[in-house]
Amino acid sequence: MPFVTVGQENSGSIDLYYEDHGAGQPVVLIHGFPLNGASWEKQIAVLLDAGYRVIHYDRRGFGRSGQPTVGYDYDTFTDDLKTLLEKLDLRDVVLAGFSMGTGEVTRYLSRYGSDRVAKAVLLAPLAPYLLQTDDNPEGVPAGVFEGIKQAIRDDRFAYHKDFLDNFYNVDVLGGTRISDQAWQNSFVVAIGASALGTLQCVDAWCTDFRADLPALSSVPLLVVHGTEDRILPIDSTGRRLRALIEGVEYHEVEGGPHNIGWTHPEVLNPILLDFLGKDRG
């Protein structure tokens, strides 16, 4: 199994698990909380069939990557991504992030520019700024995040059950667009993640990306968001980006929950392939 070393904690290295398949223009898929790179299953096969090289990896603390107690912030996450891109010497890359993974895409372009990047994709984005403040009234009150952290401390497993129910809108889509078995797989992945990493990621969700947004205009950008997202409400995130980023291609998935990549692939995948195919050599 391939790993890339991104840091050190005491006597051990911090290693990220990744997979690298296919040939053609590289598409790097960055997963959402609390899943892993394999959660892109319904996009991976489609991208490979369309002639793309597909790379996906597990964020530190999740999946088969190492579980350090440090580095759960977007500067570090972005440095991890940079290390992977450089190790594989990837160029003309499409960076595609879902949910928490949209933070790495946004911060990477802001910190390191578009030299290696051809296009960017944000699915159910975290930006521009999720935390409600005096100058960001559209955000979510700080007490909500404190409540989430307390729920994780009290019973991480019960928290994940509730989180994933809303991740897929199980009360509406259960048995049709999300099976009990697929939900259970997500639960197993979630509880296998680092307990400390799970907790510390909540603070990362409150990262202010507003100063990073101009960098997203440096490459063609696709944003897709489900209208019924209960995790990252569309009015606080995706819909705001239309006015904040010049030239963005924006789509909404009617009735889509947070994880539209799993529940609505017949809607999302054609949008994704059409965007990637534009001006493709």
Automatic annotation (TrEMBL):
Family listed: Belongs to the AB hydrolase superfamily. Bacterial non-heme haloperoxidase / perhydrolase family.
Residue stretches spanning the membrane: none
One matching Pfam family: Abhydrolase_1
Record InterPro entries: AB_hydrolase (IPR050471), AB_hydrolase_1 (IPR000073), AB_hydrolase_fold (IPR029058), Epox_hydrolase-like (IPR000639)
GO terms for MF: peroxidase activity
Alphabetical list of Gene3D superfamilies matching this protein: alpha/beta hydrolase (3.40.50.1820)
Residue intervals of the AB hydrolase-1 domain: 26-265
Alphabetical keyword list: Oxidoreductase, Peroxidase
Designated name of the protein: Non-heme chloroperoxidase
SUPFAM superfamilies recorded: alpha/beta-Hydrolases
